[in-house]
Protein 1
Amino acid sequence: MRQAWGFRAARAAMFAATCVLLAALGHVLMSGTPIPGWAIVLAFAVVGTAAWFVTDCERGIPFVLVSTVMVQAMLHTVFTTAQAHPVTPPMTPGHEMTGTSSYGMLAVHLVAALLSGLWLAYGERAVFTVLRSVATRLLVSLRLIAQPLFTPHQPRIQQHYSPRPLRLFLLVHAIISRGPPRGVPVN
């Protein structure tokens, strides 16, 4: 099922918003350091543009999950770099993310990627199911309205001629024969 540009844009924006906002929230909560606004805007633009190119048709659950995991891994790298080298000074003293903290954050990204990927994939499936159902019902209604009330060429109906008289056909289904069948001797 191919979509119009508005529906594609909505799907791409939903995917980008879900991925970028969850990743940014996880980074801020895990590190205690704010992410520069330019990094969030840049990440949203890049993820939204990439999502635009793959939202041309309905995608399956494995594709959405793999895409979400890959995007979360990329966002982890971008946000870690943006927090380590901010363009503006941080509002609070920053923490260096090395060793266990970075691995913990990557693990949180993977869990968030799997959960948000499942959420997006099943949400997409539900939206497409509803759209197909609405389209089917709408098309059936339009076919009933657009169908002419009479056919322009009515077929000629020929009367069926039977060589047997009509009286043999009357009430044939109601004849009840009692007794033994004919031709079978009764003792």
Protein 2
Amino acid sequence: MKLLRSSAIALVLAGTAASLPARAADPELTVFDWAGFEEPAIWQGYVDKHGDAPTFALYGDDDEAFQKLASGFKADIAHPCSQMVSKYRDSGLIEPWDVSKIPAFETIAPQFLDSEVFRDDQGVWYIPADWGATAVAYNTETVPAEDIASLNIFIDPKYQGRTSLPDSADDVWALAYLATGVTDWTKVTDEQFQAAADWLRQAHQNVAAYWADPAQQSQLMASGAVDVAWSWNDGVVLLQAEGYPVGFQRAPKEGSSTFFCGFINLKDGPGNEEKVYDFVNAWLAPGAAKGLLDTIGYGHTSTVAMDTIKDEQAVKDGLSPVDAPILAQTPNDPGQRERQLAEFEKIKAGF
């Protein structure tokens, strides 16, 4: 098996992203971020201004990142997905942004700020930055088209020991809700929760491994250990860039999921607050969209930035609208989310 060249793939050789130490650079800015987002092409404007990259500490799971910050880890800025923001607010770990220092804030598409969790009379708590899809990655040489027409491929006995799911409660519940006919997770009944949990228990029987970050998922598929994975865009982009026969099915009959992530301003950060804003402004610059798409496969929340990449094939393949149901991973009830997290841990343990 050839090793993938991407730095994100290489992370898995040293262990999961959540366990990686900080990548030291500019000591005046510490960015707590997902593995893979340390690529300068996404925030080149910061390097252009300061001559160095920020110091990065990397993680692979939103809940683990929260626990680390809640336990006292110090950083200046973090990059959670939208459903985590209420948890950070409730814990008192973040403070509002001064959007007068973020000129491109006004270019963020309105749908990404359509929640009082993100913006209320106390201020703007969240700067949405990137978005993507969670769908079915599959080996095009071993998985026939008819099998990926339904999410039930994940419970098909033919694929026992040949699938991989993310070690992320949000993503696996998005999958399970879709598979059982739910497309809005903000209005889930007890019966719908139980049906999704039952489906996940079936899916667990086929799982060879739960991937902790896209690097691990990509290695599992590149090695031939699994044929099918519930995947973000980046795992597919990494594999396709290396010539592996991997497709991305975003339109099974039950649908697929979308998510978006962004930046929170951590209270009492140890670094330079002005550099925090410089980093966000570099991220929101129009030119950042191309770097984001090429390295991660994600879309940009700025309409101006997205306009610069709208004709790219990667946008058409991985981000364009599909004729299938969509479950949007928007903020949901914190109590329901904790219930899902606890149930997922039971399922992974075989209960």
